[in-house]
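Treating backbone geometry as a discrete language has practical consequences that deserve illustration. In the encoding step, the backbone of a single protein was reduced to a row of integers, each denoting a local shape. The amino acid sequence and the backbone structure tokens for this protein are reproduced below.
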Amino acid sequence: MYTAQGTLEKERLVNQYAPLVKRIAYHLMARLPASVQVEDLVQNGMIGLLDALGRFEEGMGAQFETYAVQRVRGAMLDGLRENDWLPRGLRKEMRRVEAAIQKIEHEQGRPPSESELAAALGMSLADYQKLLLDARGHQLVYLEDMTSEDEDYLDHHAAGVSPDPLAILEEADMRAALVAAIENLPEREKMMMALYYEQDLNLREIGEVMGVTESRVCQLHAQAVARLRVAVVGTDGADDAKKPVARRRGRKPKAAQAAAA
């Protein structure tokens, strides 16, 4: 991995980890609209890989692949944010979905069904499901990516950095809220999230396991993420007493900064 001079063999490592960049890109594509090209993700990811190769000496003992995954993913997300890939109208519609989820959950004490959400939004079920497909990728940030813009996950968690007690408490609260929110998802959405995030299956594979189409998996994912956003981040119209843990702090939480549309 290193030359005789103690530096990384960049050319060999670029070739070695190029498949990793493609794997991350195709996994991310499952949550993005068809207008996003996988080649653009790969290109941005390769920039992130080169950045990781140049900065790995700052990784403070972390495994290179772990470090590279964070840099590659971060570069892809940065490219997506710069291109503003989701139209404002769709962002607005997904905020309406989240507000409806919060209202019905508060009134009924349970997660609303798709039919209930469609009715609350004044849509047919077919139109609501099409909205979920169109808006897939409304939130695509991983939990570990929810750090400030000038701070990498490994830099933030590296050994030797003095811990910030408030930041540790906020992160623990957010993780606990996210775990609780996932547990409260409807069973099919919970299964889909486990297959995607824990088992690392793609949409086709998840569809085969669940006996549904890839499009249906996309719909379930978009709806599950909307539910999680309500539970962890909340909505702008929520009363303080009803706001999730992540929105009760004095300043806007990192999770909200990263996930806000």
